[in-house]
Specification:
This protein is mainly α and about 110 residues long. The protein is about 65% helix and about 0% strand. The protein is elongated, with a radius of gyration of 16 Å.
Length: about 110
C-alpha cells in the first residue's frame, strides 16, 4: 500500500510542473499542440483514482511528451518566469513573422 502523503506529494509535484510547462515552447508554438498536451494532463488527472504508486502519477503524459517536456524545461531554465519572451523567441525561430500564431502569443 502506498503512503497517501507520498502519493499526494507526487500528484502536486507533477501536476504543478506540467501545468507550468504549458506556458513554454514547444507547447506555445501551436495552439492545437497546447490543447493536446493540456488535455493529456487532464486525462491523467482524471485517472488518479486508478493509480496506486507515486511513480505512475501522470506517467502517460510524462512518457508521451518526454522530449517536449525536456525542451520546455530548457526554455524555462533560460527565460525563467518570462514566458512571453520565451514564446516570442520560439516564434522567431520559426522564422515567419507573418505567422498568425504570433498574434495569439502577444497578449
Amino acid at each position: 500500500m502506498t503512503d497517501p502523503a507520498e502519493f499526494q506529494q507526487a500528484v502536486v509535484k507533477h501536476h504543478t510542473e506540467l501545468s507550468q510547462l504549458l506556458a513554454y515552447p514547444p507547447f506555445t508554438v501551436e495552439w492545437a499542440f497546447y490543447r493536446e498536451f493540456r488535455d493529456s494532463i487532464q486525462r491523467d488527472h482524471a485517472r488518479l483514482a486508478e493509480i496506486d504508486a507515486p511513480e505512475q502519477v501522470y506517467l502517460r503524459t510524462r512518457t508521451t511528451y518526454a522530449d517536449e517536456i525536456e525542451e520546455a524545461r530548457l526554455w524555462r531554465a533560460r527565460y525563467g518566469d518570462d514566458t512571453h519572451s520565451a514564446r516570442r523567441h520560439a516564434l522567431e525561430l520559426v522564422d515567419d513573422p507573418d505567422d498568425p500564431r504570433y498574434e495569439w502569443f502577444t497578449f
